Amino acid sequence: MKRDTTIIEAGRRPEWTQGIVNPPVYRASTCIFERYQDLRDGVKDPDAGLFYGRRGTPTHWALREAITELEGGAGTWLYPSGMAAVAGAIMACVRTGDHILVTDSVYEPTRFLCQGMLRDFGVETTFYDPEIGAGIEALFQENTRLVVTESPGSLTLEVQDLPAISKVAHAHDALVLLDNTWATPLHMRAFDLGVDISVHAATKYIVGHSDVMLGTATANARAWPKLKHGAVQLGHTASPDDVWLALRGLRTLPVRLKQHEASALKIAKWLQDREDVDQVLHPALPTAPGHDLFKRDFSGACGLFSFTLNRGSYDTIDAFVDDMRLFKIGFSWGGFESLILPTDPARVRSATKWQARGPLLRLHVGLEDPDDLIDDLAKAFDRYNRLLNA
Predict the structure, then answer these.
(1) Biggest alpha carbon–alpha carbon distance for the chain
(2) Which of 31, 104, 107, 185 has the fewest CB neighbours in a 10 Å radius?
(3) Angle at 127 between CA 291 and CA 119, to 5 degrees
């Protein structure tokens, strides 16, 4: 089946749906065994059927199977947030005395995990230039066990050379983890590029409505036993109600993503033509850094990108963002609404130095009419320029 058909059919086994279109919400802590032998069989193989609510119900199994099929992996686990998925996947792969390599463009809370709890547990982190490619070889140590990638980066949208990084990592018997949230399971086949674990903040495009916190981690055959063991040991689970909402969001992901992509590209090209914009950081633009890698490794884009202004500072950016009508100030992305976030990448860089002529603004382009969004941005530029010209 083609991808868009798979996204409709995946995870909808008749024994889970019971004759209705969507798998129902199975809420459970305790599961009942008819006979003591059934319980003993369950202890031997808890994944053979219902065992305990934390290990999942048909609601969970449906989403796990659907994501696994879309990603092309060996198995998927669900977590209560995207960050929980990142943290759970990393902690499943390392132990005291290990060393990990993490891209300098990584999601800020992931950086804090590496600099906080992982360091306290005796795991050493080296941050690396996201554009390093095969040059990452020089950073490997005898105890390097994991490379944490994110492509494109959360704020500055650098595209990583995943095949080159994965080849080096595997030569050192290390695993490669990718935060694949930007591309979604539709726009990048992570395992084809050498990745071992693909993580998504399902909070974003998979759910698609800004009302659920959820994470997924899918692993290949090599990494799946380690990932699953870690998830079970740490007690990671997710609410079946949230999982059901993710299943519903997943079915419309292709059509939503097409609109996000088209509107974002229209706005990115409009921004490129403005004299008061210094740089538009959207990997699908031919002028953007990493565009050649994007063309090679991705089948499409989403609604998230950044741009930098050619003057001003974060002390004056209030004039730009405070009175916007459609672009709301807020974290996260992937919902139907448009968001804007002023942020300084220099705060969270250690291996590379971020330099720009003016402030950076990250946009999530939602499902509103792009012409209305452009009008909202044009008025923001007028306010900002009036302040700077006064």
Answers:
(1) 81
(2) 31
(3) 145
Rounded CA-CA distance 229/159 in Å is 31
Query: Are 331 and 341 a contacting pair, CB within 8 Å?
Result: yes
Asked if 166 and 191 touch (Cβ cutoff 8 Å), the reply is no
Structure tokens at 122: 């005796």
Q: Label residue 334 exposed, middle or buried (CB < 10 Å: 0-12, 13-18, 19+).
A: buried
- Retrieve residue 231's tokens: 């998830």
The residues annotated as belonging to the active site are: 54, 107, 179, 204
At 241, which helix (H) or strand (E)? helix 240-251
Q: Mark residue 243 as left, alpha or beta (left: phi above 0; alpha: psi -120 to 50; beta: remaining).
A: alpha
The residue that leads in pLDDT, 328 or 38, is 328
- The answer to whether the CB of 152 falls within 8 A of the CB of 158 is yes
Element (H, E) at 167: helix 162-171
Residue-averaged pLDDT of the chain = 96
Query: What would you report as the CA-atom Rg of the chain, rounded to the nearest whole angstrom?
Result: 22
Q: What span, in angstroms and rounded, lies between the C-alpha atoms of 275 and 273? A: 7
In sequence order, the β-bridge partners of residue 215 are 79, 201
Helix (H, G, I), strand (E, B) or coil at 175: strand
List, for residues 92-123, the tens digit of each pLDDT value: 999 999 999 999 999 999 999 999 999 999 99
Q: Tell me, what's the pLDDT at 18?
A: 84
Q: Which of 63, 44, 65, 53 is nearest to 243 (CA)?
A: 63
Q: Helix-strand-coil percent breakdown of the chain, rounded to 5? A: 45, 15, 40
Buried/exposed code over 237-264 (b: 16+ C-beta within 10 A; e: otherwise): bbbbebbbbbbebbbebbebbebbbebb
Number of H helices, E strands in the chain: 15, 12
Closest by CA position to 304, among listed 324, 325, 330, 274: 330
Of 124, 234, 258, whose CA–CA distance to 184 is shortest?
Answer: 258
* CB of 208 closer than 8 Å to CB of 136: no
Per-residue model confidence as pLDDT tens digits over 263-311: 999 999 999 999 999 999 999 999 999 999 999 999 999 999 999 999 9
Return the number of other C-beta atoms located less than 10 Å from residue 286's C-beta. 8
Read off the amino acid at residue 136: I
